[in-house]
Amino acid sequence: MTKRAVKYWNVLSESSRNRWQAIDGTDGMIEQVTLSMDDKNGDYTRLTRFKAGADTTSFGRSCHDYPEEVFIVSGRLYDQTNRTWLEQGHYANRLPGEIHGPFLCEQECIVLEISTPSQA
């Protein structure tokens, strides 16, 4: 099984605004949209948008038992664990178990995430 095929669409256009979903517990400050998903193994690609002022401190640090790639599409985000500002163009391939976050956001930031739970 592979990720579902998707025709071209502009996820950042105003007409796609209704596809973004707020993440519970963030008061609408963080939202995401799944770009593709493999329903069988759970692998997915998504965008996460952190609005200016977003703070995930209440969620604590995070880690996964699967690899995860992230690419900063726009803006900047502070990773408190790694004490690093992630800015437009930054990329990371996080190995299983790598701790990251919580995150602080001073200006809107969009992150592309490619996660592969099938490799857990």
TrEMBL record:
InterPro entries named among the record's database cross-references: ChrR-like_cupin_dom (IPR025979), RmlC-like_jellyroll (IPR014710), RmlC_Cupin_sf (IPR011051)
Domain of life according to the entry: Bacteria
Domain ChrR-like cupin, chain residue ranges per copy: 15-111
SUPFAM superfamilies in UniProt: RmlC-like cupins
Pfam families with a match to the protein in the record: Cupin_7 (PF12973)
UniProt name for this protein: ChrR-like cupin domain-containing protein
